[in-house]
Predict the structure of DUF4430 domain-containing protein.
Amino acid sequence: MKELFQKMMKKLRKHSEAAGAIAALLLIVLFSGVMILGIRTQRESVPENPIDGMEKSSMVMLTGTKEVLAEQTKENGSSRQQMQNQQSENQDMPETESESSKESGADSQGTESTGSGSKNENGSSTEANRDASGNNSGNSSGTASGTNGGNYGDGTGGEKRDGDDKNNKKPNKNHSGNKNKDKNGKKDRQYFRTTIENGGTVTKADYSYQIEQLTDLKVLKTENTLNDGKVTTYRGSLKLAHGENKILVAVTYQQKDGTKFTVSKEYTIYYDEEKLLIQTNLSDQTVKSDHISFRAWAQLGKETFALTATLNGTPISADENWDYKDVPLQEGENQIVLDAEKDGKSEQQVYTITYERPQNQNIRFDTDLEDKEVYKKKYRFYAQAFMGSDKVEDLTAWLNGTQLSPTDGDNYEVLLEEGENQITLYAEKNGSSEEITYTVTYVKQNSGDGDGEGNVEAPRVTCTLGDSGNSLETQRKSLSFQVQATDYHGNGLGADNIRISCFGDSGDNITGLIWENSGDVSYHTELSQGYNTMVITVTDAEDNTTELTYSIFCTAAESGERIGTVHISVEATTVGSGILLSQDVDIYEGETAAETVVRMLQNNGYSVDYTGNYETGFYLARISSESNFVTGNIPEDLKTKLEEHGFEIYDFTPNSLGDYDFTKGSGWMYQVNGVYPNYGLSDYCFQNGDTLRLRFTLAYGADIGQDMTGGSDNWGYEW
């Protein structure tokens, strides 16, 4: 090689001009080779796309070109930086999204729930509510009455804002958290939802809301930002400014592989304490039924009152609860106009309900009739017929060839003949007809065909007023009580099986239903001054009857007068904090249990977050203190039980205790005289000597003796 190089140099010296050209050519070739090698090396060193291969559930993507990112701005760099830091914890995750899709303003049911969700003075109404009676037995002293277990009250109603267009469009609501989209843009993941009514108007500055997690991912932290202010930890309530308010809710999650990401959602709420509001669960819609039911009322400040409503120009009426029931519709478009006036202010909302008559549908029967053998001569049944969702009015019932008349509504009561009886239902509508026949065989019993004392088939009945024959004394005119009843088969009996008669010296007293669960029905009655007699009669489907009788003497104290004391304890034993308070508290005529409990907590240095008010829909969401009172020491055996039932344990705040602390099933519940009522604190009036326990649960009540999920999954021990 050396000799070859020397020979080349000799020739180059002989040909110097050619040598310069050759040298330049060699430099070009050498430079090109270096460049090609560098490009190849750089390409091989580029990492793969960090999100390629990532699970779709890990990605939080924008849902459209108009999405708002929760990113730092010039005006608010410091307030947004904390939230941005959450997003940068893992570079494999996309930026936080802020979805503002809006849903039409009808009731949000079911959450929850729920029942129909709780009406509150923030402009929301439940439930859902869940026609709201406030905290129920299984729920922390108050979501929708009798749901026995929804922790959340979803807003109903759709208040109209000034500036809505001339077509009277209703404001949209949105209770949903952000959703992922797949590569085709289709939504396939929803992480959380809230009770915030997007675009709604409220008349109180103190605004409370709840968040429901819709995923099993671990929640690291939940934060909210109000009007581009400071990012704060979610506490369940915010202080609104007058006019428009922007609320950004952000939840940070952790996947099983440790990946962290944040999902956020922005809402708009208007605070106007002098705004005249129309609250309703109506929305523009198309229905297949020829009638519609809805609720509507007006609100100005703290006052709620009736409004006027018309259907196609004709006035329609509501009952005392502002319910418009079974309003008949004409085929095609129907216009419902709601008008409210108060103190020189007026408000109007207009809704279009389109009735589309079902075509070519068969008639179907809804009845409890069946081929069966019975042992009582008196036999009751109900029967209805439908074509699609429309009720068929032209229905007739026949017993052994004789046409029957209903005793009331769609209910029938007949006397059977001994042996086989043929009961035939016949219905026709729009040229179609349907007929069905049942055979009911009556087997006569030689003994015990009536209801005498000691009848083993009589309903089993208990009442919170105590044993039948009790004599009671009270200074309160208002009396709340529960009736629990089953037939001898163990089936729960409801309000249709129970008749309450209460009368005093001045005549019959008014008794109303509070809430009904299968086998557990609650009532409220207004007593007369002096002696009152209450008779509770329970009758099962086989005409067996049980009767309870009470004598109640009422001295009827004046409003505001002290009428005795109750004992109240506030217990956080499930989280290792023991009994926070335990003391006797004075009670006053005209004060509900909700007002008494809040007064007692505030007098002991606690601040209270709740929705609704003392008279209706009260929901105790959280108590807080300036001092740290939550230790977080969950008993080990309870922690094991929580893990066995799929409850993840979250972080907590040492000076505050309420919904969703520690677990998704946490919240406050209440118990009176050993019983968890199926109605809220705003529906209960203390009696002298009552004992109330306000208890914190981590598992929807299963850990403190009252499973509120609708089942019977109590864990056999109370922590």
